[in-house]
Amino acid sequence: MPEMIILVDEKDREIGEIEKIEAHKNGGKLHRAFSIFIFNSSNEIMLQRRALTKHHWAGVWSNTCCSHPLIKEKLENAVHRRLKKEMGFDCILKEAFSLVYKATDKETDLTEWEYDHFFIGVFDGAPKLNPKEVKEWKWIKINELKDDLKKNPKKYTPWFKIGLNKVVENL
Asked: Which GO terms describe its cellular component (predicted)?
């Protein structure tokens, strides 16, 4: 059965539903999403490298977890469901801000056009990765990450690059 996600308008009001892959084709359709940024008590950020089997931005580094709530699923439930599914742990999450962005993966011609809710959490353990979702992970200091983003911007997902500075402001 295809996974269905929520279509929204520019104010995050629900306007319909669409099969997940279809939401990313032909320039994309605006849909609800979330991005989770996990920090440890040393103020390092946990990054994940997306699995090579992902439809878009495969093998690219990103924030700790990102996905879409399912139809009729509360955003607060979706963030915990996906964090457990992708990274094998859960923690307290706080919504920090939201924004709309649009970006196309040049490799696959799939487009993310998302009303993206950004969540922040703290965790000091090691994740238990779901290999279907995540290839590898690491902790990294913010200043090292920002240096690498300048040198190697193509190694990172667009939503991660767009949201990082605002996430750091919300710590």
From this structure: cytoplasm
| Residue 65 bears catalytic tag | no
Is 66 designated active site? yes
Catalytic pick from 3, 76, 114, 136? 114
Catalytic residue among 19, 65, 66, 112: 66
DSSP the chain: -PPEEEEE-TT--EEEEEETTGGGSTT---EEEEEEEEE-TTSEEEEEEEPTTSSSSTT-EE-SEEE-PBTT--HHHHHHHHHHHHHS----EEEEEEEEEEEE-TTT--EEEEEEEEEEEE--S-----TTTEEEEEEEEHHHHHHHHHH-GGGB-HHHHHHHHHHHHT-
Over residues 4-39, the pLDDT tens digits come to 999 999 999 999 999 999 999 999 999 999 999 999
Domains of the chain with CATH codes: 34-103+116-169 (3.90.79.10)
Cβ atoms within 10 A of the Cβ of 84, count? 14
pLDDT in tens, 46-71: 999 999 999 999 999 999 999 999 99
